[in-house]
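== Fold encoding ==
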Amino acid sequence: MSTETVSEIGVIETFAGNGKSRSTGDGKRAVKSGIPLPNHITVDRDGRFFYIAESGSDRIRRVDMETGLLHNFAGTGETCYSGDYGPCGEAGLYLPLDVLCDSHNHIYVCDSGSNRIRKIDADTGIITTIIGTGQWGFNGDGPALECNLTYPAAIAIDDQDHLYIADTQAHRIRHYDPQTGMLTTIAGCWTAEDDERVSPLTAQNLIVLSGDAIGIDFSNDEGLLRPRCSDGLDLTLYLDDGKPALECKLYDVVDIDVDRHGDLYITDKGTNRIRKIDMKTGMMSTVAGVCRYGFDGDGKLAVQSMLNVPEGAVVDSDGNVYISDSMNHRVRKV
């Protein structure tokens, strides 16, 4: 007689959004409100408020977890950068792609289109820029307000409230110390020669996706919407495990997570890999992926398995890594 173990099956339901591409429903039930192009999401440390980076309307929306009501929290709905040192609800945001909270419930917004990281004070609601000049193109490290970011796509925070930024089109990971206000590069060594060698995809134009939803077109002149490792690309430049992270090549970082030990997990969509930085040694390794895209089955070592345009990875308290393997239409576990 065989014994079958059945796992508990969860039931999926809509928490927020009505399926429409227009931003609506301020002050109404979250499930009845329009949420165009929600990107990253987060919950504050008290579990009271749920925040949505609504990139389609250039807003941060907030759901009260006790009442289920949704409110416009930050952004006016106009695609612009404005409003520092004023109420966050009167400030302009420019393609917010990520949002998170620190241990004091201050809110951080990855304002990708303005090449800035912005902070909203939990007590006053005042918004300020803490990282970025608004200009793009890597110009070195130093005081965070004097350093450029280039279309940052994601942020993460550790238990000391230090920020990590995916400086995506600069092909680097940056570290922000809130005590000193300094920004430093901890991974990535991209150069002008690399730009010429691979012609990486860059955000070129704002486009209307549907209705009034605004996004960025990441296609190149041939209309390719995702990077491919062509036969002419020298992959040996990316096979840099065991090297200091500052000597490693990153292509298109779209997500970062921090595990309970403080180590970083980096989703490099451009090389179809999940990378890890050991923060004690500063060394880089690969967790999953082999630089080429595709699907070649399960049940093998993750570092010998193909991923296909991974969009994110999270690490649980036991060290398991879950990967959004987007073009394979799967969530993978390592």
In short: The helical segments are 192-198. The radius of gyration is 20 Å.
